[in-house]
From TrEMBL, chain A:
Residues 12-193 form the UmuC domain. The record marks Y21 as: Substrate discrimination. NCBIfam families: PRK01810.1, PRK02406.1, PRK03103.1. Binds 2 magnesium ions per subunit. This is DNA polymerase IV. Keywords: Cytoplasm, DNA damage, DNA repair, DNA replication, DNA-binding, DNA-directed DNA polymerase, Magnesium, Metal-binding, Mutator protein, Nucleotidyltransferase, Transferase. It is found in: Cytoplasm. GO terms for molecular function: damaged DNA binding; DNA-directed DNA polymerase activity; magnesium ion binding.
UniProtKB/TrEMBL annotation, chain B:
Its EC number is 2.7.7.7. It comes from Saliterribacillus persicus. Gene3D superfamilies: P-loop containing nucleotide triphosphate hydrolases (3.40.50.300). Pfam families: DNA_pol3_delta2, DNApol3-delta_C. Keywords: DNA replication, DNA-directed DNA polymerase, Nucleotidyltransferase, Transferase. It catalyses: DNA(n) + a 2'-deoxyribonucleoside 5'-triphosphate = DNA(n+1) + diphosphate. Residues 237-320 form the DNA polymerase III delta subunit C-terminal domain. It comes from the Bacteria. It is an enzyme of class 2 (transferase). One of its GO terms (molecular function) is DNA-directed DNA polymerase activity. SUPFAM superfamilies: P-loop containing nucleoside triphosphate hydrolases (SSF52540). InterPro entries: DNA_pol_HolB, DNA_pol_III_delta_C, DNA_Rep/Repair_Clamp_Loader, P-loop_NTPase. GO terms for biological process: DNA-templated DNA replication. This is DNA polymerase III subunit delta'.
TrEMBL record, chain C:
One of its GO terms (molecular function) is 3'-5' exonuclease activity. GO terms for biological process: DNA strand elongation involved in DNA replication. The lineage of its organism: Bacteria, Bacillati, Bacillota, Bacilli, Bacillales. It comes from Saliterribacillus persicus. This is Beta sliding clamp. Keywords: Cytoplasm, DNA replication, DNA-binding, DNA-directed DNA polymerase, Nucleotidyltransferase, Transferase. GO terms for cellular component: cytoplasm; DNA polymerase III complex. Confers DNA tethering and processivity to DNA polymerases and other proteins. Acts as a clamp, forming a ring around DNA (a reaction catalyzed by the clamp-loading complex) which diffuses in an ATP-independent manner freely and bidirectionally along dsDNA. Initially characterized for its ability to contact the catalytic subunit of DNA polymerase III (Pol III), a complex, multichain enzyme responsible for most of the replicative synthesis in bacteria; Pol III exhibits 3'-5' exonuclease proofreading activity.
Length: 413, 322, 380
């Protein structure tokens, strides 16, 4: 246990890059430094809108999603650039690599922010020393500014990093919550969107402090479990752990198996493909996810191994769907010689929450059955918050499926 | 065509006359059995407007453009390098989603169809499964076993017989071989192309000489035979298939002797060595010669069973001398 | 064959037919240009087998002699050299002469070229098209009809028939229809009396061919004659003849898939909606799914939003002209919406929805000749 840290507590950092895209551009071309820069979709066209802007531009009133012409009115010397997403991804990767030098417990949240759990990092100094070092290294190596929040949990760290920008370091202790957090207007609270804010204001909750002391039952009625969760956070409570895997976890799910003997028998091969497809489908379903790319690995009797993948025009998650695509790939790539091992992987995975399916003119009528369910779901989501439906089905599945999360994936195959 | 593949051509002629042309044919036969020739003839019969009894005129615009590769509704696919690639089949696939350029009649030929990659085969299968009215596919192969069974089952299978001996001799003579040589090469293979290749092959010419020498030595100088086997025969017929060919040639010699004895001299292969055959027939009686034929067959079998070639030859020559 | 004529007019015609020639063709003769001289005209032909373009130079046009001398004949010349040679000739007049050994001489001033030709008999011959299945349209109307539909053809080969535009005569109207199965674009015009007894019912023209045709058609109100054959369709302008092969097979019946009732109707300003969706798509584009969401907010406002987890969020409320029926939330591809709104030809559009998981229709408020249909995306 560290001398810096509270007993049984954790130390969490939230690292938030300041106006990331504009800063990356300025680092790339130092002549842009100190100038008002904006990244916009279509700089040539008047109707383009601002994606992000530098602090110099923000000072003049330039805001994200503002039409270009309006921004130029506010800031006549605005330098407008097209987004270079490749450049931003590269900078993001390097930024996270710096965070990983301190601890493996880094959870990237998006391209320009992430959490770190530095509870076990006293060898690098006090939490504030570590934050200072991180800020300095990111500045020296990447020429990029960032703000860092230090707190005992993710929510407070996030709120803290927001308090001083750019280049701020803010410590938010639980005992400071009343003084620093409660006076803030409710729509400044992380996790409260525009809609939720409106709903809360309707029952006279206008500050984070109001939320902290509101009637819990009333909140639950208004926002579902999300209401209780938000109230806990308003009181400085947040039990979520920093999860380094969260961003990688859903990228791909695969299963592979060696045959008991080398075979050219279509029946054996089909049976194995079915088994593998079932494994993958079960794991996808446990994660409430689906994927858009199917990869097949074939190892031949002579150990020669090929992997072939194909993009599918919809997200798949069912055993039969996975099998069909795996089988097609297999047929396209099998030269007829004996097979030793097969592997099926579903890639480009997203959770069903993020998932969209383009309906098809010739088959949309088949989906009409789902329509009523869909309407009910939308209704419920509006009433009780986004997670209610998904959570329910997730818990439901757990009851039947005794493999709980600590067993993780390596037990699945 | 009729003269070379009578059965097949009769069948095709009748289907063309009855306008009952299949959507897909699979022509299979060894090299030199006339697959390409037959396929092009079929394509011409389909397009030619001046055909008589299903024989194309060979002079009209359609026939000539099939020969020159300029017919817009006729497509010829053959391996690009070692195999027929997916892109080649994709091109075909596109062609068949379009209407024809001059009419809706379309014909495509896939030569060496067994060389399609798996991917290409599967693509081809897709449009064999949904044939369009006026499209005819003609696949050519030497090895129908190497064609996907699902493709085979969607094609009318046409087996081209190897040429019979007389046709082959005629063909070889047309290709410029002397009658005597044509007879020999038609006797060693029934593949036109292989026969033509052998006729130009120096090794084969020497092989023929060594066999003549052996036959003569067996009569005149039997004590030297084993040495001859060791110093001349073995170095020339090194590989097993070569050794088999040597025995085949020997077999032909002894057959000729039998023909001499039974007075069917027109059947002789080495008729230009008539005097040598006559002399040999004096040395080996009809029974002897016939016995030797079965000894040679035995020797061939032993070679097949991996008995050492030198041992096989030594045993065989001892049999000859009895 | 012998031709003596003005070089510039020849260059112009060569440039037209060159648009159809591709060096990638598998048919050797199609790498050439066919030149065909009769007593009254010279005709050039270029083709990649999918499309064929013919350009005609008459001996005389409106009293002006274009060709000084013609000896009839024909030849095919390699398209790689012939146009370059013609363009670089020194003199304003050019003399082209071929002998019976397919040798061609090109003379101009003191320059003389000799080229090897190929037999014109080897060149594909286009089937003659029936005149009882022909009709005519103004150039610019045809161009519009192409522009308003061809963008919606499928680019995937899984259903080849959908890579074309379906053209049919039905209910006294000429219809152009294209769909990639995610959206559908339809345009119709009433047939004139003299076209009422057209003998064709429907054909499917490859989208690629129509795009090419659109490029060479001039934006004028001159009439173009359209002849429909069994396996080709031809477009005959004054000195230009464009022929394309068709797609084989039956085009799916789409009319029954278009909803005829609606639960929600929105009237909106075309440009306002287009720009708003375009802005929302800015962030949607990067996250590959390209989805934006539309939500009605009372009778005067709709909200357009998009959200991509990695990048950010756009929300915009726009004022609409009016809303009838139930409230609605629907998600769709911004690209399809932008494509559809761009070709509306009207300041105001009417959008008819029948539910969040059913196709919706966009039409100009003032006419029913243009119809755009979009299938929404299903979110989970």
């Amino acid at each position: 246990m560290s001398k810096w840290n509270p007993k049984n507590g954790r130390v969490i950092l939230h690292v938030d890059m300041n106006s990331f895209y504009a800063s990356v551009e300025a680092a790339y071309d130092p002549s842009l430094k100190g100038k008002p820069i904006a990244i916009a979709g279509n700089p040539e066209e008047r109707k383009g809108i601002i994606v992000t802007s530098s602090y110099e531009a923000r000072k003049k009133g330039v805001k994200t999603t503002m039409p270009l012409w309006q921004a130029k009115k506010l800031c006549s010397n605005l330098i407008v650039m097209r987004p270079n997403f490749e450049r931003y991804r590269k900078a993001s990767k390097e930024m996270f690599n710096i965070l990983f030098r301190f601890t493996p417990f880094v959870e990237p949240v998006s391209i320009d922010e992430g959490y770190m759990d530095i509870t076990e990092c006293e060898e690098y100094g006090s939490p504030i020393d570590i934050a200072n070092q991180i800020q300095k290294i990111i500045y020296q190596e990447l020429d990029l500014p960032c703000s860092i929040g230090i707190a005992p949990n993710k929510f407070l760290a996030k709120m803290a990093s927001d308090m001083k920008k750019p280049n701020g370091i803010t410590i938010l202790r639980k005992r400071n919550v009343q003084e620093k957090l409660w006076p803030l207007s409710i729509d400044h609270m992380y996790g409260v969107g525009e809609k939720t804010a409106l709903k809360l204001q309707e029952i006279n909750i206008n500050t984070i402090g109001d939320l902290a002391s509101a009637n819990r039952a009333q909140l639950k009625q208004l926002l579902g479990i999300n209401g209780e969760k938000l109230q806990d956070r308003a009181n400085g409570l947040d039990k979520r752990a920093v999860d380094p895997e969260s961003i990688h976890r859903f990228k791909s799910i695969g299963s592979s198996q060696t045959l008991p003997y080398d075979t050219v028998e279509v029946q054996d091969i089909d049976r194995l493909l079915h088994t593998l497809s079932r494994n993958v489908a079960n794991r996808l379903s446990r994660k409430d996810a689906a994927g858009q790319t199917l990869q097949l690995m074939i190892r031949f009797h002579n150990r020669k191994t090929i992997t072939r993948s194909k993009k599918i025009n919809k997200h798949i998650d069912k055993e039969e769907e996975i099998f069909v695509h795996a089988k097609i790939l297999f047929e396209e790539n099998w030269d007829g010689t004996a097979i030793r091992l097969l592997g099926v992987t579903v890639q480009d995975i997203i959770t069903k929450e993020q998932m969209v399916t383009q309906l098809d003119l010739f088959s949309y009528q088949e989906h009409q059955e789902d329509e009523k369910l869909y309407e009910v779901m939308t209704h419920l989501k509006d009433k009780y918050g986004d997670n209610i439906i998904r959570k329910a089905s997730f818990n439901e599945k757990r009851k039947f499926d005794l493999k709980t999360s600590f067993q993780k994936d390596f037990l699945d195959d | 065509m009729k003269s070379i593949q009578p059965v097949v051509s009769k069948m095709l002629v009748s289907s063309i006359n009855k306008e009952r042309i299949s959507h897909a044919y699979l022509l299979h036969g060894q090299r030199g059995t006339g697959k390409k020739y037959l396929a092009i003839l079929l394509a011409k019969s389909i397009f030619c407007k001046h055909q008589e009894r299903a024989e194309p005129c060979n002079t009209c615009r359609d026939c000539q453009r099939i020969d020159s590769g300029n017919h817009p509704d006729f497509h010829w696919i053959e391996p690009d390098g070692a195999s027929i690639k997916k892109e080649q089949i994709l091109h075909l696939q596109k062609e068949f989603t379009y209407t024809g350029m001059e009419s809706n009649r379309k014909v495509y030929i896939v030569s060496d169809a067994e060389k399609m990659t798996t991917n290409a085969s599967n693509r081809l299968l897709k449009f064999l499964e949904e044939p369009s009215m006026d499209t005819t596919a003609i696949l050519l192969t030497e090895n129908s076993q190497a064609i996907l069974p699902t493709i085979q089952s969607r094609c009318q299978l046409i087996s081209l017989r190897p040429l019979n001996n007389k046709q082959l001799i005629e063909k070889l003579e047309q290709e410029g071989l002397t009658e005597a040589n044509a007879k020999i090469f038609a006797a060693v293979t029934n593949d036109l192309n292989e026969a033509l290749e052998k006729s130009k092959d120096e090794w084969f010419a020497n092989a023929r000489k060594i066999v003549v020498q052996l036959v003569e030595m067996l009569q005149t100088n039997p004590n030297e035979v084993l040495l001859f086997i060791h110093t001349q025969w073995m170095p020339h017929f090194k590989e097993r298939p070569q050794a088999q060919q040597g025995l085949d040639l020997l077999l032909l010699w002894f057959k000729d002797m039998v023909y001499y004895h039974i007075d069917q001299k027109e059947q002789m292969v080495f008729s230009y060595h008539y005097d040598k055959i006559e002399k040999a027939a004096m040395h080996w009686s009809k029974k002897h010669a016939t016995d030797n034929l079965s000894h040679i067959m035995d020797a061939k079998r032993k070679l097949e069973q991996n008995v050492h070639p030198q041992l096989v030859m030594e045993q065989l020559t001892l049999h000859f001398q009895r | 064959m012998k031709i003596i004529m003005n070089r510039d007019r020849l260059i112009e015609s060569v440039q037209h037919v060159m648009k159809a020639i591709s060096q990638k063709t598998t048919i050797p003769i199609l790498t050439g240009i066919k030149i065909e001289a009769t007593e009254t005209q010279v005709k050039l032909t270029g083709s990649d087998s999918d499309i064929t373009i013919e350009a005609v130079i008459p001996k005389e046009e409106e009293g002006i002699i274009l060709i000084d001398e013609i000896v009839p004949g024909s030849i095919v010349l390699h398209a790689k050299y012939f146009p370059e040679i013609i363009r670089k000739l020194p003199n304003e007049m050019v003399e082209i002469e071929s002998d019976d050994k397919l040798q061609l001489s090109i003379r101009s001033g003191h320059a003389e070229f000799h080229l090897n030709g190929q037999d014109a008999e080897e060149y594909p011959h286009l089937p003659l098209l029936q005149s009882d299945s022909s009709f005519s349209l103004p150039n610019d109307l045809l161009k519009n009809m192409i522009r308003q539909t061809v963008f919606a053809v499928s680019t995937s080969e899984t259903r080849p028939i959908l890579t074309g535009v379906n053209i049919k005569v039905e209910d006294d109207h000429l219809h152009f229809i294209a769909t990639d199965s995610h959206r559908l674009a339809a345009r119709k015009i009433p047939l004139e009396v003299d076209q009422a007894n057209l003998s064709f019912s429907q054909v499917v023209i490859p989208g690629k061919s129509l795009n090419e045709l659109n490029k060479i058609l001039e934006d004028t109100d001159e009439k173009i004659e359209i002849q429909v054959g069994e396996n080709q369709i031809a477009f005959q302008a004054e000195h230009l003849y464009f022929v394309t092969r068709l797609l084989e097979g039956k085009y799916p019946e789409t009319s029954r898939l278009i909803p005829d009732q609606s639960k929600t109707i929105i009237h909106a300003d075309t440009k306002t909606l287009l720009q708003s969706v375009d802005r929302a798509s800015l962030l949607a584009r990067e996250s590959q799914n390209n989805v934006v969401r539309l939500e009605t907010k009372g009778n005067e406002v709709v909200e357009i939003t998009s959200n991509s987890p990695e990048i950010g969020k756009v929300e915009e409320e726009i004022t609409i002209k009016g809303m009838e029926g139930e409230d609605l939330k629907i998600s769709f591809s911004s690209k399809y919406m932008i494509d559809a709104l761009k070709i509306m030809e009207s300041d105001q559009v009417k959008i008819e929805f029948t539910g969040a998981m059913r196709p919706f229709i966009i039409k100009p408020v003032d006419n029913d000749q243009i119809l755009q249909l979009i299938l929404p995306v299903r979110t989970y």
